[in-house]
Batch of 2 targets.
Target 1
Amino acid sequence: NAGVTQTPKFQVLKTGQSMTLQCAQDMNHNSMYWYRQDPGMGLRLIYYSASEGTTDKGEVPNGYNVSRLNKREFSLRLESAAPSQTSVYFCASRETGAGSPQHFGDGTRLSIL
Amino acid sequence: EDQVTQSPEALRLQEGESSSLNCSYTVSGLRGLFWYRQDPGKGPEFLFTLYSAGEEKEKERLKATLTKKESFLHITAPKPEDSATYLCAVQATGGETSGSRLTFGEGTQLTVNP
């Protein structure tokens, strides 16, 4: 039972390069989320997709784009990476229903030089 | 704006030494409060959901409680394998229209020494 799978696990980029982080879930969940986690800042929501075909901005969307490719997959794209985007990125998914928890992948550790 | 504050930032315990972690929250209306455990290099792992003041949930050595302004995660007779960062998050009422977003605290890093 894979749950939420994120690829790659690690990546180093140079400033200005572009990259897409991939996320897939096998739990048939409707909602999916992208977070970044930084020391002293906690988990902050970048973008979310409440259902297939919809995406919305979270708390820190600047510099990112997302695509909900289908019900299983939700990708995060950095068009022109900046050192401030060095972080650990987590994808999560959730089934519909009050109080249903979000389930997380193990993250992508991204360094931008 | 929803806010979550966790204390202490870090806690060191001896094996068997019980203690509690605190999560204080401010939210317009609480739909759910969530506790997660995060191990180094891993994503958060769901532990509990609490919905209303007075509610309690237990799992092995962990018990979560909820009041109108805070939640506690009580750890009874901890073992070294309980060492992790514990995260608290809240979901506000009306959140279904905004993707059931969560607001997270910064976490408490727990270390249990043998």
Target 2
Amino acid sequence: AQKVTQAQTEISVVEKEDVTLDCVYETRDTTYYLFWYKQPPSGELVFLIRRNSFDEQNEISGRYSWNFQKSTSSFNFTITASQVVDSAVYFCALKSGGSNYKLTFGKGTLLTVNP
Amino acid sequence: SQTIHQWPATLVQPVGSPLSLECTVEGTSNPNLYWYRQAAGRGLQLLFYSVGIGQISSEVPQNLSASRPQDRQFILSSKKLLLSDSGFYLCAWSKGLNTGELFFGEGSRLTVL
């Protein structure tokens, strides 16, 4: 069975602080994909990134960076110099390489960035 | 570019009334289509998915049903709503066998009274 754990239910930071959102996953598959989604107050989930299990290279996109470590089954997301517009619920998700349809989502982390 | 739309955005219905939520994808063909529900507490639950016209798979037994009458149209229905059907319903699409990333619609908030 697959499982995604986002232990941080809520995080509150002040603008310009760096913040890391944790994601730990469980799967028996050797091929799998990991994702992060952002859900702003409007409700629509926005795709941020996908990583496959064979690529542990960390990725940076502007103020966003992702740290994938298979040894600890973690796929953490860091926002540098946070801004108020980063306030949202962030979801980590996992998909088996053998399944073309099902994403298993974590319960999400509510990030509030205060001015 | 591809777009996905859901409607209505907000719905308040009495217990026992029927439901129809619609979702349409534009700019792509033969997408995989999904209905998710997000109840209080934020968890996302996959309700139905479809890999083609008329092909519907249900993930959990429930009061709801889904249909795909056209390639890019996905409908979520109920004959008689229950209080527990309240929630935020999200339609999504994906392309390809292994890419996996889902693209979501704006969501439909259903309140059953």
